[in-house]
Amino acid sequence: MSVPIMEAAALAGRLLLAALFLHEAFAKLTAYSAAVAYSEAFGVPGQLLPLAIVVEAGCGLLILAGFYTRAAALLLAAFCVATAVLFHSKLGNRNELLHFEKDLAIAGGLLLLFAHGAGRWALDARARKSTARGRAPNLVEL
What we know:
Elements: H1 3-30, H2 32-41, H3 49-65, H4 69-87, H5 94-116, H6 123-132
Helix pairs in contact: 1-2, 1-3, 3-4, 4-5
């Protein structure tokens, strides 16, 4: 397959993954009280909600830009596994099982992103190029 198609697929994958987490962070911000109540109903302290929002929004933006992609993907993969275990553990309920499986599948996609990187159409690739030429990456150039 040609390189541009593979790079476009990597970019599209990053955009789709980032959109999910950015949307969820925004949803938590706009319905903060409901998000706290939901968390606390599962035994998760509401004080952790700001951390969840920062992880989703921050890592979502990093993946979108393709900057520190591997670290962001690994952190979000762990976040998805924790979400599956904490919020969707009633596997006898078909809907809960579906959400559990979905969270694990998203974690799997994020682990692939961690393993293979963001692709050539990412800020990470520009930084690698600069480093390979023997100079520190210039964020202004990125």
